[in-house]
Amino acid sequence: MYKEITQYISNKNVTLVAVSKTKPIQAIMPLYKQGQRIFGENRVQEMVEKYSQMPKDIQWHLIGHLQKNKVKYIAPFVSMIHSVDSFDLLKVINKQAKRNDRIIPVLLQFHIAQEESKYGLRIDEGLEIIQSLHTHPMDNISIRGVMGMATFSDDTELVRSEFRKLKAYYDLLKSQQYVQTDSFNQISMGMSGDYKIAIEEGSTMIRVGSAIFGERG
Ligand SMILES: *Cc1c(COP(=O)(O)O)cnc(C)c1O
Description:
The protein is an alpha/beta fold. About 40% of the residues lie in helices and about 20% in strands. The protein has nine helices and eight strands. An eight-stranded parallel β-sheet has the order 7-6-5-4-3-2-1-8. Strand 4, helix 5 and strand 5 form a beta-alpha-beta unit. The longest helix is centred in the last third of the chain and has 19 residues. The radius of gyration is 17 Å and the shape is globular. It starts with a helix and ends with a helix. Bound molecules: pyridoxal-5'-phosphate. The site of pyridoxal-5'-phosphate has 14 residues, from strand 8 and helix 9.
């Protein structure tokens, strides 16, 4: 499905993050050879291992929940962290980025699904984080936008309404006084089952795994 997906987004302003979690390097390299350079992983250790063994021009995106004590392992090389869900985590990322003399791009992850189990901020918490940055500036992170996961459901209207909610959160955050509006420009939403709906609702970054690599075991 890789060709179909890249073709589908080719005339749209959408970036594909190929979600390679659980897949071995031999399964990922063919995609690299076809030109894919952005890969998404949800576990720190797996991402570090793949980073060390794969070509260095790959951009690694961390899309899964991130524990504060593991930030140091990915800070030297991670291209984007999609899953920032607390101010404390942001502080740790900033500190580790500074230690590595770099700026790490991040997204704020919001809870938009009906399921209880999914991680993510409420909008009031997101606004609070943005406002806190005014009094606690962080020079080594760049907040690039928002991320969210819709309910895993066949109910396309439910899924659509959740993506719409994330887009509204994005618009609200972007309108805040302390947001760098030029670089706050990413909405990471849409997976294998719902990326077309997500794009219709304003996604700029889709995270697709099983539709490219096949089901995970
Ligand atoms: C696994 C995962 C994806 C990709 O899911 P698919 O349904 O395989 O496309 C996207 N986003 C996150 C956060 C994930 O953990």
